[in-house]
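User: Fold this; tokens only.

Assistant: Input:
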Amino acid sequence: MIGMWSEHAGTFLVLIAGVTAACFSLPLFIAPLRWARLLGWTIPAHTDLAVYLGRCLGAVAIVLNAVQLRAGVTGESATLIFQITLGIALLMVMVHVWGAIRRIQPVSETIEIAFWAGIALLTLAFWP
């Protein structure tokens, strides 16, 4: 399984960078509370910390998207970017499983467990 589609590693990185930037990174960076409402979160009365943390996470995710895109186009540091992508996907599975077990997240976040697990499997399948 590991690397069975490795000849398409660059394409995978370009696609994952674009999809996650459009669906996650940019919306979280630009409008974190609107993004949270769309996912079913209840917004507290005091939102400054939520906006700050959302924008910080969005900024980090945008940088990840940029290096995924660069590695996808140039091949430079592709293995490192795959390692980082896999690490993020696995940790995101853990974060969402924990939230589901504790029943502290909207159902959309629980559904994301499958999304992040899929990203982890695809990362392994396209591993260079």
